[in-house]
């Protein structure tokens, strides 16, 4: 049971990190696209 629980915990953490809405890369993309729109 511990092995299964630890696997599931790690799996959900990996999934949460992959699909997080507040990743720095996503903020950078938003800022770059916003700056490009402001320049036009």
TrEMBL record:
It comes from the Bacteria. It comes from Candidatus Saccharicenans subterraneus. This is Uncharacterized protein.
């Amino acid at each position: 049971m511990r092995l299964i629980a630890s696997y599931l915990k790690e799996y959900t953490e990996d999934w949460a990190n992959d699909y997080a809405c507040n990743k720095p890369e996503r903020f950078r993309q938003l800022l770059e696209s916003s700056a490009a729109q402001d320049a036009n």
